[in-house]
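Retro notes - structure team

What went well: the batch runner handled both jobs without manual restarts.
What didn't: labels got mixed up in the shared folder, which is why I'm recording both outputs here explicitly, each with its sequence directly above its tokens.

Job 1
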Amino acid sequence: MTAEARWTSLAEAGAAARRWLFEDAAPLWCNTDARGLFAERIDMRGRSESVARRVRVQARQIYAACELGRLGWTGDWRRPVEAAVENLLAHGRRADGFFIHTFTNEGEPLDLRADLYDHAFTLFALAHAGRALDRPELWDIAGATMDRLEAWRHPKGGFREGEIDGPPRRQNPHMHLLEAALALWQASGRARWKDLIVEITTLCGQRFIDSKTGALTEYFADDWSRLAGAEGALVEPGHCFEWAWLLGKIAQSDVPDVPLLSGRLAGFAQRFGIAGGVAINEVDLDGRLVARNARLWPQTERLKSALARRDEEEALRAVHGLRRYLQTPLAGAWYDMQMPDGTFVEQPAPASSFYHIVCGLSELLTTVDGA
């Protein structure tokens, strides 16, 4: 989005967001190569970098293209989605039913290890592609994949992180598994996904959220007790906002206490996690600053959380913060990291951020269109 005059309404912000998404970003990012791979990173000259392609990024880009089509982008989103899905299933899935971690730049399997975070986004992609392409058999594949993940259940709750597992335990892969379960439940209506939603939401309330402060912590011991010291007290405001939004979505179900959890998470992040007009990377449980650098993705989660709470003033502040990252030499690209002095790190735009951007701006456009 260009440096226009400050928006005074969500409708104005939404109009600018739609232009940026449809005219600049979608044509740049919604393309696959001859092997059905989306770019991993694009530099400010518009060139795709020759680097390994992560399965989680391929899955995120499948979602992003599907969502752009749902929002009304008239460009060719279907062809790259079909190519990427077919490549993922043909070359990214092992004989045992698990998905690999990375491809080479040329599309050959590279790191064959299976990872929970990757699988969460693969399930998420299958949910959206199944709906967008009218291919319910993709939901069957998602179910078969979840059958494989059952072997990773941890005796103390939740899941192991797979073959890239190791201490400490993390909430983050579980959050994205919850997001995938919600997408699959909404798309397919299959009960197993609602059961998983209830399970992970309950785990979050019991283990991930600090009962005293309402903040979400990141790292845990094997039994889900919070780690001692600074690592155990670390809070990422972006994840507080992200969980707040996701739990708000789930609050329409019969999961108990979700609205209270959502409000406390957003309240902590809004109180302690905003500096210089943007959501910063890290604080501790007492709200003390740990890292004032500010990545792009917490800005989209701040926006989603504000929209879910119908806080228009906060949503406008969030979208103005996000707009800074989108003012780049290449239309449709973004900066990923703002430094404490307000400058941005000069580096190629990572495709991993497009999932966050599309989801955040989709929530904005849905709010505006439904007003």
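Job 2
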Amino acid sequence: MVSLVIATFNHARLLGDALDSALAQTLRGVEIVVVDDGSTDETPAILAEYAGRLPYLRVVRRTDRGGRQVGPGVVEAFYAGLETARMEDFDYLCKLDMDLDLPVRYFELLMQRMESDPRIGTTSGKPWFVHPQRGTLVPEVCGDEMSVGMTKFYRRTCFEQIGGFVPALMWDGIDCHRCRMLGWKARSFDEPELRFVHLRPMGSSDGGWLRGRIRHGRGQYFMGTGPLYMAASALFRTLHPPRVVGAAAIGWGWLAALLERAPRYEDREFRRFLREYQFDCLLLGKRRATARADVRQAPRWCGRAQNDGQPLQTGGSL
């Protein structure tokens, strides 16, 4: 069984199409939990209409926090939904955003990829968005070694072993690196049937793209990214619009956090692993560095989860 946890805040304009996209999936045996994170528009009425005719859709209503919160707020909303489900009842879970248009076989094909390689702990397709001037679909920047934050598809066993999501900026990078550290694989696949439309480009939903780029740099600092890798990452971003200003904003976000002596992710073993992996990325390229990490960390992999001291096996039928 699969549990989809979807958080929404004032998404009335996109809600119907996004829900229909999730409901049209070919994968069966799916439980859907929608967390209304304090919406003040027509979102509650739309969700009530869907919940009234779909027995497998459950709505969790949270109080208005005064606006959307990225990072900690996103994770908190996800857990508000996950807490209403029995973890032992399902083998897979997905943190899903409400501003996506998914191809109909999206989850079915992700399941196939994971069943073919038991070490894949989290995976996703690739996000595309409609270019505001040209009106054509454009890919968002996303490495093959990560699952994207707007659709995190997980084996339950892997999710439990990494300790779930960290309620902080860069939660959607920390989780993938923790997977790798523990011997799991994190992957995203660029195939036509796994490409989905992101109705709001990444980093544009809270204060615009400039604030989003600065926030990304601060998140990289929190995660533990070093100065050399951060400089290379910002330079790479000049290949994608907004080129120079966007790259400078990312670099400034990291530098400002450094000058402020902002807090960092407290797991020192994780930060050491991350620095070693990032050094290999600079030296070998991401593809070879990821393959090297997968081999090096393989002895740590354990495809079981612990629940009250009892091992639980994955891969049950849906």
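One thing worth noting from job 2: Confidence is low (pLDDT under 50) at residues 306-318.
We'll revisit the folder naming next retro.
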